Amino acid sequence: MGVGLSRGLRRPRSLKPTRRARRGTRVRAECGQALPVTRARWAPGRLACTEAPPARPAAHGPGHHSGRVSLGRRNRETEPARGKPPDGSGPLPRGTGRTLMSTDSPLAGTTAPPRRPQPWLVAPEDRVRLPSAEQAAHAQADPARPRWHVTPAWGWMNDPNGLSVWPGPDGGPLVHLFYQHNPCAPVHQRIEWGHQYSSDLIHWHDLPVALRPDDDGPDAYGCWSGIVLADERTLPDGSRTVVPTMLYSGASTRPTQTACLATAVPGDPLLTRWVKHPGNPVIDAAPASTGGLTVPEMRDHSAWREDGRWFQVMGAGLPGAGRGGAQAGAALCFSSDDLRSWSYEGPLAVGDGDAGGTGSVWECPELVRLGGTDVLFVSAWHASRTLRSMWMTGCRTGTRMSIDVTGRCDLGENYFYAPQSVLLPDGRRVAIGWMQPNGTQAQRLAAGWAGSMSIPREVTLGADGTLRFHPIAEADSLRSRQLVDAAGADAIAAACGDGLRGDSLDLVLTGRLGESDGDVVVDLGVSDDGARRTRLRLTRRAPAGAVGQDAWAGRLSLDRSASTAPGSVWEAPDRAELAGPVPLDAGGGVHLRVLRDRSSLEVFVNGQPLSARLGVAPGDDGVRVRAGALADARLRVWTMADAYAGRLAPAAG
Question: Which stretches are tagged as biased composition: Basic and acidic residues (predicted)?
Answer without folding.
Answer: 74-85
